[in-house]
Amino acid sequence: MNIQDYKDLYVFIEHEENKIHEASLELLGEARRLKEDRPSLNYQVVAVLLGEVSEDLLSELAARGADETVYLHHKKLNEYSTLQYTHLLHQMIEARKPDIFLIPATVLGRDLAPRLAARCDTGLTADATKLEFDPENPDSSLLYVTRPAFGGNLFGTIINETKRPQMTTIRPGVMDKMQRNPALTGKVSMQDVSLDGLKDPVSILEVLKKDHMAVDIAKADILISGGRGVGDRFDLLRECADMIGAEVAGSRAAVDEGRIEKDYQVGQTGKTVKPKVYIACGISGAVQHLAGMEKSDYIIAINKDPDAPIFQVANIGLVGNALEILPLLTKEIRNYRE
Ligand code: FAD
Fold first, then answer.
1. Concatenated DSSP letters for 267-320?
2. Residue 284 labelled as part of a binding site
3. Residues with Cβ within 8 Å of residue 242, at least 6 apart in sequence
4. Global pTM?
5. What is the mean pLDDT of residues 282-311?
6. How large is the ipTM?
7. Binding residue per annotation — 283?
8. 292-316 burial, b for 16+ CB within 10 Å, e for fewer?
9. 210 has a pLDDT exceeding 70
10. What spacing in Å lies between the alpha carbon of 168 and ligand 1's midpoint?
């Protein structure tokens, strides 16, 4: 393997029902940032998409930062298959030699990335939260990939000096999407692919959607999140949330106690969220919780313990009983609106 032959920043595009997954848009934004961070490399941002999508979706990829889209076209690929995706992406990697290949750490990405890395005989850094080029050498494309370890108490930075592509999965909700720029146009390199001889022993018979997945807390602008301190009074959070168009989430303790479902858990083993406003009620602020919300634009914390660690990341801290403060807050908002 001659590392010098490998170039550009590739991003795997996950899509469903002709919509790009938010996590892939975030990776396009991050790839763009990396490209601009190191202009001497003269790298392109290349989106890689399998399936069949509309022209609009392809234009959207360009508007969101892709200089080029490698479009491996076959209608059947709209349905994910580990075997087919691994095979086709491996072929693409052999032919085009990407230096960096970013995959969202979604359910699909976590299934695909380890297989693909093994097939390409390269390393994989999973669940990364930070990427930067070698800070010591301004011309290097060596990627420093940081990820939490030991329950979020330590961060490890991993480099891959000897194999290519430098492959990594990135936690959704951590990177910033690029502001949409419709003036940007990207090249589309479409290839009709054949699935002959790629019969997958796994067949998907039916895809059932869970009703409650209609709300994705990672996309909410305002979140009111409850912890153990709220006990069984999540109704107070919901009442307040209804007044301001917020969604309700919770800490792992609240999930473990059955106050709210796991899909709404914020934190290291839940979702990473970055809303405009995050209101933490009766949440202590353990590192594993902070890992999922500390990048929120504005944090309001209500806790009766003035020394609770959540106050260290809060923009506004209210020391008091959340069960008393929340109804007052809801009442004030209602009065203000009327
Ligand atoms: P507690 O820590 O019990 O805090 C309750 C808080 O409520 C206290 O600060 C208390 O002062 C306050 N309080 C009590 N009554 C009131 C009241 N009436 N009004 C106001 N305040 C009140 N946690 C997550 O949240 N998300 C994760 O994804 C996650 N992943 C984890 C992964 C690993 C590997 C491990 C080891 C742990 C993980 N945890 C996670 C658990 C985490 O360490 C904490 O145990 C958890 O976040 C605590 O939840 P909590 O703040 O609701 O409860």
1. STTSB----SEEEEES----HHHHHHHTT-SEEEEEES-TT-GGGGT-SEEEES
2. yes
3. none
4. 0.69
5. 96
6. 0.99
7. yes
8. bbbbbeebbbbbeeeebbbbebbee
9. no
10. 30
